[in-house]
Amino acid sequence: MLGRKRADRPPLRSGPVDVAIARSTVRYIVGLALLAVLAIAGALITQTSLTDQKFDAAQVSTAAGQITIAQRVTEQANNGLVDPDAHPIDATASSMRITIEELDMIQSGLWVDDPKPEILELFSVAEPYRAELRSAVERYLVALADGSAVRADVDAISAQSQLFQAAMEVVVAQLEIDAARRVQSLQTTQLFLLGFTLVLIVSEGLFLIRPAEQQLRNVWSSHVEKQRSDRERAQKRLTFLARYDALTGLMNRSLFNERLESAVERARLDGGLVSLMFLDLDEFKGVNDRYGHAVGDELLKQVAERLLGSVRDSDAVARLGGDEFTVVLEGNHRIEDAGNVATKILAALSAPYNLNGLELRTSASIGIALYPVDGDNAEDLLRDADTAMYSAKAAGHNTYQYFTPELREQTSERLSLIDGLRLALENEGQLELVYQPKVDILEGRTIGFEALLRWHHPELGLVPPSRFVPLAEETELILPIGEWVLGHACRQAVDWMRSGIVFDSISVNVSERQIRRGDFVDVVHRALSKSGLPPEKLEIEITEGTLIEDTQLARRVLERLRSMGVQIAIDDFGTGYSSLSYLKRFPIDTLKMDRAFVGDITASEDSAVLSTVILTLADALGMNVIAEGVETLEQARFLQANGCRLMQGYLFAKPMPAAQFERWMAQEMHPTLADTIITINGGSPRLRAVSESDIA
Description:
The protein has 696 residues and is of the alpha/beta class.
């Protein structure tokens, strides 16, 4: 039987049996060796064939590309002769030279990159026709330049192009034939190897299975028993997962709700006290983002262990999801007992963690709700503990907060602001756009402006964006608000264009949720169509985080916007996930240097170095850079000295309502702005220096 001790097994047979076992072992080893050789040979042959197929595909693509280019040059010549108004002579000549040079470059690259004689010989068949096509194009360009071009010149190009295309089609056909021949050869070889492998496997089976028949029976019996045990373990596992968290082993939300309801019911009967703690780790998302989810999961498991070690066995500890945990305390008679336990928990969680050799520290925020003080049912307690937890986070992390009626009022105020936002979208006059100029200090002009949203609440007055934008993000109100901003900004820009105000573009900030929405490109197209604003006059500003949240979606959206002519800018660049790979992967026109760098640029060496690096990187990639938050002449001079000519900030102008901005732009050059630019460039102000009141 399997599993018995070696001493209990029968002794090995001697004589012919030993020889038979030895021979079977040798045959088995030899068979395995042959199978390994066949597997390696098959892999090598397949790899070689795949390399050849990639090469064949590249050559076919090269030949087909030359056919397309030849067709294009004929179309360009015909357009230049038939419709000179739509296709001016200079533009036609330039495009035809670029096209024929592209054809030459492909041919030259072929000779450099592909040393195989048979390929060179195959492509050389079309070389005379390519040369004749180039000559025909050169004659046409000369005739086009002196005005003597006629239909015969175009027909000559067309004839030579067709000859060249025919020759290249022969090349393509021959390449495809050669490729098919190699594929057929690979299939034949693979079939041979497969057949040989099957024969070898069958032979081994015939010679090895019979002597091991009894052993197979034992193995099969053991396998059946193992399957039964596995099914039982799987059933137990499913039962466990229905009640407990798979990662930490703590109660899950379902079992936690049952325990909390039972605790409340017992307290209702015996007049006891139930304390519910709602715990959330501080900055846990940063741990995941920086070190990966494996480290984050290990941290959660260790947090669970410390929670269990900080409470009694009779207390209930659960993980609701993510980094949210709950603790139910029963049997306490004083309200302050929950605070004592919370203090113990915070001390345990703030000790260093060893996460696979990585030492980290974290903390938590705890909200506490009590039955019957704060609520008379499990649902109310959980809601109130959650509210208290957010209050603890707002108080600075690593602390606990008891629920109070004032916190409920704060929650009510938050909900009131959300309702107010909905009403603001429905009622004219509450939402307003203000505009801040962007200036070119070298050319001394305003190149455009950024549209910024303001909310005039009928009771609260001006609500700062930092207060209402996060609420809009949480509740999806950012989608209709974003569409409102985009539409109003485009219409205002068109009004200014009609009044004679000259600018390069208007910038509109777009949130990550808007990009993730499937119809965002349609929203932009609709705003442009309704307003009549040219697409190249609109610049969409997004954050770096938007690019990495869903890379493929972001790239598709931005590429569609760029194909429309819309410009793309990265806002607050340098504080998020900036990397060269992301910049190269997306169609980005402008980087907006974050105001955090600009504010410290003259006081912090790190900020100065980072700002210089951003300018150098953008210059290498052919992108523009706009420095945000420029407030002092020293900042502007540093930026100008390091190659930054585009700036935005209070040094030049504050955000202004539309009417004020229109008056500001209507002047040839605002006096204060003109003096500021002159001062930045080392001159003396024409009127007066910028005062603190100008900046304030």
